[in-house]
Structure formats: structure tokens, C-alpha cells
Amino acid sequence: MTSSPFLKSDFYVSPEMVIEGNIHSSGSGVIAGVVNGDVEVSAKLTIEKTGKVYGKVKCRSLLVKGAIKGNIYCEEKLYTQKTAFITGNIFAAEVSIDKESIIKGVIAHLNDQQTELQKTNDESQPEKEKDIIIPIIIVPDEMKPDEPPESWF
Question: Which pTM value belongs to this model?
């Protein structure tokens, strides 16, 4: 008997489903269908091979087997498998990328300063102002190298 991914998570988007809108969950989840909107999960999120997310993804940890078109904010570790296709920037504490995964974007470390900035922005009246400097990375739609790549072999 095979186990269902639904039994291991708080929500499951089946391959036949298309969700138009955002998903917010305090528990873990599995997406095997299509989500046209942002996904915010306070625990682990898995994007199955058939899963597609067209929007921002925020979660504690993430396993990507399918496709994401949007920026990713991962508090802990992001894993990609060989079938993963990500178009967008990745901000994570730790990243493990399969060599056959395709990523079009920038990977940056999600540090404590960014987390502190988000907390400060969420509060209606912060107790005191804090000077927090966060680097901004601008990525052109099409990257062209200045010099042709060198062969190491």
C-alpha cells in the first residue's frame, strides 16, 4: 500500500486542481497542482513534479521537484531535485541544489538582518528605529557574459 502525501501534511493540492489566489497555512503542505498566487507556509512545503507555483513562496523549509516562477524566501533549507525548474531569486539560510535542476535567478543568504527587518515592518509601531542595511541585487532579464567562458578541461 502506498502512502498518500496528504497524510503527512496539513494541506494537499492535487494534480487536478488549479488554485487562483494565495495560500496561507500554519502547517506543512504539498502542492501537486497549479497555484496562481503567493504561497506562505509556516512549516515545510513540498512542490511535487506536477506542481507549479506562479507567485512568491515563503516557508520554513522547501523541497522543489516541480516548477516555481517567483521569488523564494526560505527560513531554513531549500532542496531541489533534478526535475526542479525555478525562475526567480532564492533567499534561504541553506540551499542544496541537484546538478540537473534549472534555476534562473540569484541565490542569496537569508540572514538575521532580513528577518529583523520583516519583524520591524510587521509591527504597527516599532519600539525604536533600527538601521538595517540589506543589499539589493538587480538581475537583468537576459544576462550576457563580458567574456566567453573558459574551458577547464
Answer: 0.69
